[in-house]
Amino acid sequence: MKLFETVAMVTIVAVVAGFVLYPIYYLLQAAFDVGLPDSRPPTAYGTENFAKLFDYPHIIWNTLVVTFASTVMALLFGFVTAWILTRTNVPFKNTLDQLMTVPYYVTPLLGALAWSFLGAPESGFINQYWRWLGASGPLIDITSPMGIAWVMALFEGSVAYVMISAVMQSMDPALEEASQVMGASRWRTMWRVTLPLVAPGVLGAAIFVFAEMLGSFSVALVLGTPARFYVITTAIYHFVSQYPPRIPLAAAMGVSLFAVMFGMLWLYRWLTSRKSYVTVSGKAFRPRLMDMGRLRWALFGIVAFYVFMSAILPIATLLFASVQRLAVAFPAASNFTLVNFTQAFSINAVRTAMLNSVILGVVTATLGVMMTGLLTWIILRSRLPGRGALEYLVMFPQAVPRLVFAFGMMWAWLVFPLPLYGTFWVLLIAYLTVFMPLGVRTISGVVLQLDKSLDECGQVCGASWAYRLRTITAPLLKPGLLAAWLLIFVASVRELGASILLMGPDSKVMTPAIVEAWFSSSSELTAAMALIQTVVITLAILVFSLFTRRLSMHGASAQ
Amino acid sequence: MTGAASTPAIEVENLSIRYGSVTAVETVSFTVPEGQQLTLLGPSGCGKTSTLRAVAGLEKPTAGVIRVGGKPIYDSKQGVNVPAEQRGMSMVFQSYAIWPHMTVFDNVAYGLRVRKESGAPLREKVRYALDLVKMGPYADRNASALSGGQQQRVALARAIAFSPSVLLFDEPLSNLDAKLRSEMRIELRELQRRLGVTSLYVTHDLEEALAMSDRIVVMRTGVVEQSGTPGEIYNYPRTAFVADFVGSANLITGSVVGSDATAGTVAVRASDGNVIHGVTRGRPVGTTGTLSVRTVHLSLSRDRPPGDINVWPVTAVRSVFLGDITQVQVRLGDQDLVVRQLGPLPVEPGQTAYLSARADQCALLEE
User: Fold this and answer.
1) Do residues A375 and A327 share a domain?
2) Is the interface score ipTM higher than 0.85?
3) pTM, two decimal places
4) The pLDDT of residue B254
5) Which residues, at least 6 apart from A125, have a Cβ–Cβ distance to it below 8 Å?
6) What is the CATH number of the domain that holds A218?
7) Of B58, B84, B114, which is closest to A467 when you measure between CB atoms?
């Protein structure tokens, strides 16, 4: 039995190490390859590829401008909405709080498509209205660096909100009350007590958001590429997919990007693990709310406006565009059509891509939950030597932009003895690897809440590891495992960065197919496809939550 | 199961547990005789829980031997370490560790099902265990819907249902409120006597240890400070730590002015000149010595009590009414002593009175 446990653990650790390190190895190899082109393995190694990066100063400049601008905007959105929803008596607080997570589910890609309809300099709906009002020239240009940053920030704002509101909620109200009791005014208390206390948490969120923006791909791809505006991720994609591809240069870019992101995430971890400030107890406090009087309706307006811009308007725009023959701002009966939807379902490639995505999503989620569940258990509860290192290994893919990781995988699996490249298998392996941190994070949240003695008690009662897993651990983890399944499923179905490089002609999936349609066929058809994808994901979430509610009600009735 | 069939003795020899460079337990030895209950008593961080977990097999010691019924289950020299699930023990956890996804019945049946029992015998044994802890009517309840006291009882029923060879208790009463705790203390003790299961109990609560144990081992920073029966531990603390931790005691230090090795008596003169007579309990007598006397073993009276030793004039400093008893602080020479006494106070603060103590209740401490 003991032997079986050890073998099982060692096997899974070996598989994970292979998944993560094999592509990274080939990525590094390509980045330092200065030998003859097209010869693998490389004939010479050197750092010239990195020096070549400076031949593209505009890419670095563009990346920095877009990243900084979007980070500042996203933090502003996140901080203002978090402050309003956690610290003031804004009306409809719970509804707004739930709506704040919707942009995350809308995804930046959909946002970019929708905002392209709205803010393209010539054809954008907003600019059409602007000209109709008598102005000349566009009001906004969504394909400009600031436009791209705006769309990125709209969708990252929701992430910043979740992080910053958690910080604000974890502050003991007694700290502020103490200041007030000693005679400090409300503003003095905010300035001298509240802000210094939340500052480290907000800084942590800033670093995290910055790293995410640095590695983001889809918005710049949809809005920037047509006007030949490249940031580092779209440049990597461009260099890999052009003919002839410039693999070493792209690899050097990927490695540099990855190094910077890794540093930032390390900094984030370091900052958040020094528990010197607010989050000491981890207890959720009920912060005291400021009475804003009439102003609270203005605050309601601010949050509602954010939700409108990042969720309602994009979806409405796509819906509006998808039922038109030619997407224009002014509705006309003659322009109305449903042909985009019938077409989306009748084109074979689109239909298979949809089906493929759903199948791949189900398989990835199922295998992923089993794998990350075991990994979490090993990391948190086993005594396997080196489990600390395993945690780093498992969380590693988080620090690598999915596109860069997929590039490493592509390069690695091309020389793999088995012909996996361009098949489902390579996509499955890619998804399992890049969503590993997501699964482990979700499940470990549940594992950490479980008292260790629940398992130890089973052990003292004489139950073996496998018996305990079946009778104690797995049933207790069920809610966490189900949540992880749904998160991985949703993430797989809308995956773009890894799939766009790894899918082959016989293994098309949905999101890259949407991007392909956007660049090569009609934008109205693309809008219909994007909506269909959204509906599939929403349906999955609905069915799933109904199913789990049934399960928990069943459990409750057994009482 | 009904009779007091004794179960095997536990022997712990020179057990050491280290976590990296931190030593949690240092060469601890004790024996729990067949069918008896031994308590490891000490403040948090003294190594008592680590020792218990090592006996359970949940913690791997660094060195030493643990034997049950004469057979080693852990022996660092011979490389023996029987896994926890094969030790045939049972344990009640501080957090109760009631599985919230099972019914009360399933919780209690767990150890029996692990041992491949089923059907009528299984139901019979679960029913018996639940009845023992008066939880019979709750068998079909969901375990998550129980109160703390009920969870505690279920945890106990689960621990005894499969007739384990040895019972381990990790501060099982510490999460209960004071009233329930004192009730459960007696119930636990009676149950243990009735089943005759060799038990190892861990607590930081003095009363619990005194009430429940056949023997007590007082631990501090990973080492054994004193072991003995509850009476020995309470009446004759060996060190200042035990005197202080096991109930409240007054310590009086002075130079030794006389001792009688055969009678086991000693006399100590405090710096203020007062002489206190005490017993050595076989402890070595030096030139100076410290005597320990329980606050309840001192008595205060207005008139001089009969007898010519261990009677001292004192001044009452202040008194605090605590309900069952009254606590008085008195000044003897240049040091303050605490007296806890039943009934009405013989003196008001500021008045003088006579303080007395029996010589056999003043115990010499080991230096």
Assistant:
1) no
2) no
3) 0.77
4) 86
5) A117, A118, A317, A328, A329
6) 1.10.3720.10
7) B114
